[in-house]
Design goal:
It contains 17 helices and 15 strands. It is of the alpha/beta class and about 425 residues long. It folds into two domains: about 220 residues, Adenosylhomocysteinase-like (Rossmann fold), CATH 3.40.50; about 160 residues, Rossmann fold. The chain has an eight-stranded mixed beta sheet with strand order 9-8-7-10-11-14-13-12. Helix 2 runs parallel beside helix 3 and helix 8 packs antiparallel against helix 15.
Length: about 425
């Protein structure tokens, strides 16, 4: 037995959980054509035979389809959550029932239990890592350096995690190769824009039961996730204000028709505030003191650092849960500030959240799968953060187009020669 018992070891009614989790996984799998296509290849090629893949991801149905794909490709898969509130327990049970998968993920755990799950994954001596946020990779380097020599490589799928890994690389601390899957066009253009955009506004709507129409929404950050959130909310007839620290992104938001201003100016105008930056203290005491009564605060970044909850608690004279997933903080002057999902990732940590749409995660997890295979079959990458080869992006895009019955043009030989040549001119 490992150092931390699997979720199934201490819960009654396991069979019911397994059944409901299996239903969710099967529904997702039936609507993920990219992973279905790759499954046929992986079963035939068995690229992960003899490998142990350590995973720290949001454990829900779409993730489970990816993990079972890796297991069918020969891997022993060991998984824990990458957020204390984003796991679906029934899916975790169903995964743990698979003889090739051990799941240590559970919802609503303490920080201590969260890191025990990370340690449990590491205890299996993974040869590959699949991470969202970088906690697994960081723990390996910080506390288990002796295990790193057996790690072939890994993948990181989110902006925050890639930032952490690049910092580790700059400091000379990253000891094995990691693909920055987050930075691929397939991830940024679809997962970040459409996935984060749609799932964030849906989660906020179902958590509050509010309409977007007529609301003034302040979106902090105009990276790919912020663009998606702003775009989708605009389509719901809301007014959007963008806050930014990057002049190019600020100018881009302005040219797209959004109001752009500092957060201190936006603080008294917004009905809803959504943080998408990956940085800390985006909303803090200075902003809370200016906000309207009844505002909604939600975070769409990976970690719960963008809304400074501790400063809000100090300002509040009372706090209470007013709705499942909504905590109200009442200030001395009677104003109420409502925080969703404890300031954690709102599209996965709110009670009714389902994460990104299935079709979007089919694309993102397709990228994860082919990148993991690339790391095994082409072990030439040195320690550090690596860009995903463009041909892998194109491969997944082609699979998706084929599954939708869409055809595109291809370059003729003369066109290809023209683009490659330098002798052609006026």
């Amino acid at each position: 037995m490992s150092i931390y018992p699997t979720i199934s070891d201490s819960v009654d009614n396991v069979d019911n959980y397994i059944d409901t989790g299996r239903q969710k996984i099967d529904w997702a799998a039936s609507n993920m054509p990219i992973l279905s296509f790759l499954r046929e290849q992986f079963i035939r090629e068995m690229p992960f035979q003899g490998q142990c893949i350590g995973v720290a991801l949001h454990v829900e149905a779409k993730t489970a389809v990816l993990l079972e794909l890796l297991a069918e490709g020969g891997a022993k898969v060991v998984v824990t959550g990458c957020n204390p509130l984003s796991t679906h327990d029934d899916v975790s049970f169903a995964l743990d029932a698979n003889p090739m998968i051990s799941s240590y993920a559970a919802k609503g755990i303490t920080d201590e239990e969260y890191y025990k799950g990370i340690e449990a994954v590491i205890s299996h001596n993974p040869t590959l890592t699949l991470d969202d946020g970088g906690d697994l990779i960081f723990a390996l380097h910080e506390d288990h350096e002796e295990k790193i020599k057996s790690v072939i490589g890994g993948c990181e799928e989110t902006t925050t995690g890639v930032h952490r890994l690049k910092s580790m690389e700059a400091e000379g601390k990253l000891k094995y190769p990691v693909f920055a899957v987050n930075d691929t066009p397939m991830k940024r253009l679809f997962d970040n824009i459409h996935g984060t955009g749609e799932s964030t506004i849906l989660s906020i709507a179902v958590t509050t039961n509010f309409s977007w129409a007529g609301k003034t929404v302040v979106v902090a950050g105009y990276g790919y996730c912020g663009r998606g959130v702003a775009k989708k909310i605009s389509g719901q007839n809301a007014r959007v204000i963008i806050t930014e620290v990057d002049p190019l992104r600020g100018l881009e938001a302005y040219m797209e028709g959004y109001e752009v201003m500092p957060m201190l100016q936006a603080a008294h105008r917004g009905d809803v505030f959504i943080t998408t930056t990956g940085n800390c203290d985006i909303l803090n005491k200075n902003h809370f003191e200016l906000m309207r009564d009844g505002v909604i605060l939600a975070n769409a970044g990976h970690f719960d650092v963008e809304i400074n909850i501790k400063e809000l608690e100090k300002l509040a004279t009372s706090e209470r849960m007013v709705r499942d997933g909504v905590r109200e903080y009442q200030l001395r002057d009677g104003r109420r500030i409502n925080v969703l999902a404890s300031g954690r990732l709102v599209n996965l940590a709110s009670p009714l959240s389902l994460g990104h749409p299935i079709e979007i995660m089919d694309q993102s997890f397709g990228m994860q799968a082919v990148c993991m295979r690339e790391m095994v079959v082409n072990p030439t990458y040195g320690p550090g953060v690596h860009s995903v080869p463009m041909e892998l992006d194109a491969q997944v895009a082609e699979i998706k187009l084929r599954s939708e019955g869409i055809e595109i043009d291809y370059l003729s030989e003369s066109q290809d020669n023209y683009l490659r040549g330098s002798e052609f001119g006026t």
